[in-house]
Write a structure and sequence with these properties.
Helices cover about 5% and strands about 40% of the residues. By secondary structure, it is mainly beta. The chain has one domain.
């Protein structure tokens, strides 16, 4: 049963006691194996039900990470299911908007500037979405600054897809 897979202590803390989580409607359901780290000035906005670290019956338990760094924020505007093994990081002053959908196992999302994903995202396994390179390079031709990513409605990303700036 699914109610035995939810980490209820973490659920209570994130939904009712954390000042870094702002909830209008819906709840954030962290499953066992989910690691959530929200830095001092970062915010998590929950406007619909979010299942984070959901485990399939056929696989073993993997860690699922959500890391929000200083002044970064993540907004869930639609019902979302994020499977186990996924890594989501919003870096300093990054803005990540997830407006409903499903992210399957072992996906990787890193936001340094802005990523806005429309309603009904279906992301298969091993999908990576990054608006940055993870490092700075300055040459005579310019630099590799982060650039925003916008995905509109009804996006389906098949296995092993990389969406880069």
């Amino acid at each position: 049963m699914i109610i035995f897979k939810i980490n209820w202590l973490k659920f209570l803390h994130l939904n009712f006691f954390s000042k870094r989580v702002k909830r209008k409607k819906g709840f954030f359901f962290p499953y066992f194996g989910a690691k959530v780290k929200i830095s001092k000035n970062a915010k998590l906005f929950v406007n619909a039900n979010v299942h984070f670290g959901l485990q399939s019956d056929v696989s073993f338990r993997k860690k699922t990470f959500l890391i929000l760094k200083d002044s970064g924020f993540l907004v869930f505007n639609g019902h979302f299911s994020i499977q186990q093994g996924t890594y989501i990081e919003v870096r300093k002053k990054g803005e990540l908007f997830l407006n409903g959908g499903v992210i399957n196992e072992d996906c990787f999302v890193v936001c340094e500037k802005r990523i806005d994903i429309g309603c009904n995202l279906l992301a298969s396994r091993n999908v990576a979405i990054r608006d940055c390179d993870g490092h700075r390079v300055i040459t005579d031709f310019g630099s590799n600054e982060p650039k925003p990513i916008l995905m509109v409605l009804l996006v389906w990303l098949c296995q092993n897809v990389f969406i880069l700036k």
